[in-house]
Specification:
Strands 1, 2, 3, 4, 5, 6 and 7 form a seven-stranded mixed sheet that branches. The protein is built from two helices and seven strands. It has 121 residues and is α+β, with helices and mostly antiparallel strands. The chain is globular. It is 15% helix and 36% strand.
């Protein structure tokens, strides 16, 4: 783990499962609001090593990662869909920006009514 525990870590290697990196998944809501989920992305061991090397360095701004969504999202599910994450702000973890999955692309790029919040646990 990059920090003392999973709650504060941004990088985590789970033996015999996968390495993971934290990312942000913004959902646009009507009225100009945004709901942002913190998620984990399963990434390759090579990307994990590269991420760990650059995370606290100037090269972090150029980090782009491919992987798979390691959390199911309330309302949409989508566990295991392919994702692309990119650093948009060096003060934040990478943001999910793309997917070959049409449903996740809709989550990322469509505008959703506030009623979607009523369905969250």
């Amino acid at each position: 783990m990059s920090h003392q525990d999973p709650e504060s870590s941004v990088l985590m290697q789970v033996p015999e499962i996968s390495p993971f990196v934290r990312a942000l998944l913004p959902v646009r809501l009507t009225g100009g609001f945004t709901l942002t989920f913190g998620v984990w992305i399963a990434i390759s061991p090579d990307d994990f090593q590269r991420s760990f090397r650059v995370w606290w360095e100037p090269d972090y701004q150029d980090l782009v990662l491919q992987g798979f969504l390691a959390n199911a999202l309330p309302q949409w599910g989508l566990l295991g869909v392919p994702v692309l994450a990119r650093v948009k702000d060096t003060e934040h973890t990478p943001y999910l920006v793309e997917s070959s999955d049409e449903s996740l692309m809709a989550v990322l790029h469509d505008e959703w009514p506030h009623e979607v919040l009523d369905l969250l646990p």
